[in-house]
Task: inverse folding
């Protein structure tokens, strides 16, 4: 079975790239097709056979792949995927938009329907400082991108969602069913040495410093109560957040993959105030025996069980967050039980589940071909949303 792996872009090694790495481990001979790449920042994926699109020639000059977003659909559709039995895409933007050959099956591991095109349009325009005089034109182009994104759902034989939240959004946006397979926790978190409760001090937050991650909310809470808060990550909001921060807030910037487990393991709890479709960070913390205090929405609900693996707060307000922290201080969490909970999200289990779905999809396709040859085909491809009469956002 010849497999090609597709992903939106490969510019850094983050959560989506961890999933691609595990797919690559399953099929190490499979090439990785993508729009643009920055191999020196891909860690364990840097030695993979990466085939970028023609936009790669422009990427060193542009530097920010997001500025090329509107050119990505054409780049995806231009990829020549003839000769592959299975196309496995990892998509949170344009990855599922490839044109699979008629004799191939397309399995999409969907991190989210494209948020730039749907509910995060204004954030995209703000984050990348699109001038006001260009915004009307940019919104028209994003509307075209939404239409294209919706049409590409027809090109997928099987959808896999990375969380129950994403599963709901796939159903609402594309009118398609999906199987939930949570993202993999890297083995280095599950095998790291436990640090005892008595050694844990302060709270930790991990992620890109961008507005929707709501690190500002954590800083407000830390300033109000004076608890130690360590923020790991870099991003465009760093200067603004540092101006807000009081004396108990520390910014650690980038922390290497090797050092991150110890950072999780030395904290009392991870604070996770954002709405994420999935969110690998809470799973990493739990794998290190660290409980999580999370906003009760999105993918965090798949791993954070209130009162068992952490605590949830229902509103993104300082008051709700501090109330959850007060409850947290009345409870003692056993690190080993948190680690046992995290093992159900291991990379090994992820690989087994992905392999099973891919093989089942390929087997159905073979059965369909055989049925068609006999003139008795009864296994149609899923109908697109507009043919099923399902509701979508347009």
Result:
């Amino acid at each position: 079975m010849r497999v090609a792996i597709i992903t939106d872009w490969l510019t850094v090694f983050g959560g989506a790239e961890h999933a691609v790495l595990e797919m690559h481990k399953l099929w190490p001979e499979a090439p990785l097709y993508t729009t643009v790449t920055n191999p020196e920042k891909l860690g364990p994926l840097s030695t993979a056979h990466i085939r970028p699109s023609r936009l790669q020639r422009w990427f060193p000059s542009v530097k920010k792949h997001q500025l090329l977003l509107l050119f990505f659909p054409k780049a995806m559709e231009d990829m020549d995927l003839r000769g592959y039995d299975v196309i496995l895409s990892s998509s949170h933007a344009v990855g599922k938009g490839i044109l699979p050959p008629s004799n191939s099956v397309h399995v999409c591991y969907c991190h989210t329907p494209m948020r730039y095109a749907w509910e995060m349009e204004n954030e995209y325009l703000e984050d990348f400082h699109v001038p006001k005089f260009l915004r009307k034109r940019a919104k028209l182009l994003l509307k075209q991108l939404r239409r294209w994104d919706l049409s590409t759902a027809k090109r997928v034989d099987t959808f896999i969602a990375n969380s129950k939240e994403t599963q709901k959004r796939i159903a609402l946006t594309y009118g398609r069913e999906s199987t939930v397979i949570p993202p993999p926790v890297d083995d280095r978190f599950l095998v790291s040495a436990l640090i005892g409760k008595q050694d844990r001090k302060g709270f930790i937050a991990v992620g890109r410093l961008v507005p929707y991650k709501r690190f500002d909310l954590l800083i407000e809470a830390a300033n109000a109560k004076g608890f130690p808060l360590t923020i790991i990550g870099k991003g465009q909001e760093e200067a603004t957040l540092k101006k807000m921060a009081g004396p108990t807030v520390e910014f650690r910037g980038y922390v290497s993959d090797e050092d991150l487990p110890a950072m999780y393991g030395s904290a009392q709890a991870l604070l996770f105030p954002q709405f994420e479709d999935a969110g690998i960070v809470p799973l990493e913390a739990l794998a290190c025996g660290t409980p999580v205090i999370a906003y009760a929405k999105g993918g965090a609900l798949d791993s954070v069980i209130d009162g068992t693996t952490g605590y949830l707060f229902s509103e993104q307000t300082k008051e709700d967050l501090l109330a959850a922290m007060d409850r947290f201080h009345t409870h003692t969490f056993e690190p080993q039980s948190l680690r046992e909970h995290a093992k159900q999200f291991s990379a090994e289990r992820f690989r087994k589940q992905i392999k099973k779905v891919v093989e089942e999809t390929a087997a159905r396709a073979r059965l369909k071909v055989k049925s068609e040859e006999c003139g008795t085909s009864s296994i149609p491809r899923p109908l697109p949303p507009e043919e099923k009469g399902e509701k979508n956002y347009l």
User: Anything to note?
Assistant: The longest helix spans residues 347-373. The mean pLDDT is 88. The first strand starts at residue 3 and ends at 7.
